[in-house]
Amino acid sequence: MDARVDKTLRITTPSDVEFAMTRQFDAPRHLVFDAMTKPEYLVRWLGCDAMAMPVCEVDLRVGGRYRYVFRSSDGIEHVLTGTFREVARPDRIAFGETFSMPGFASDEYLVTSTFVEEAGTTTLTTTIRHPTKEARDGHLNSGIEKGVEPAYDRLAKIVAGMA
User: Fold this and answer.
1) Phi and psi of 148, rounded to 5°?
2) Which parts of the sequence belong to the Activator of Hsp90 ATPase homologue 1/2-like C-terminal domain (predicted)?
């Protein structure tokens, strides 16, 4: 593993309705792209340690849908669903997404991930665009970094094993 790879999760706010999360991975971008889009890898890193992921369905094509169900130990389900709007392997992927759990359902937001490779290191930038500043701020202030940082650490281990 290359010590020059910056494993820090950086969160920025490019506009009043967007936030972006950026991190580097010590792997070629096609492996990072595959780990982010294939169910056999997604179930190993997406979500948090406290929840199982009993449903991971992906129809990776423009217009295709996905559905991820996370279940807590007390049986509460958190569900992410969406439709792929752009699939340009291994450069870019974009999809609409909604989040729901008992008593809450989000409006749809747009997720765009770009994969830039330089000398075998991939910089992943995921930008989340909400319909309003209030929705962005609610998502941004939900403690998202506490879930994304360990998930990206698991993703880094998976792509290291894929090389």
Assistant:
1) -75, -40
2) 26-159
Per-residue pLDDT reduced to its tens digit, 39-84: 999 999 998 888 889 999 999 999 999 999 999 999 999 999 999 9
Q: Which residues of 118-147 are buried (b: 16+ CB within 10 A; e: fewer)?
A: eeebbbbbbbbbbeeeebbeeebeeeeeee
Query: Do the beta carbons of residue 23 and residue 6 sit within 8 Å?
Result: yes
3-state SS class at 33: helix
Angle made by CA atoms 26, 19, 14, in degrees to the nearest 5: 100
| H helical segments located in the chain | 29-37, 39-45, 133-140, 144-162
Structure letter (DSSP) for residue 6? -
Q: Is the peptide bond before 90 cis (omega within 30 degrees of 0)?
A: yes
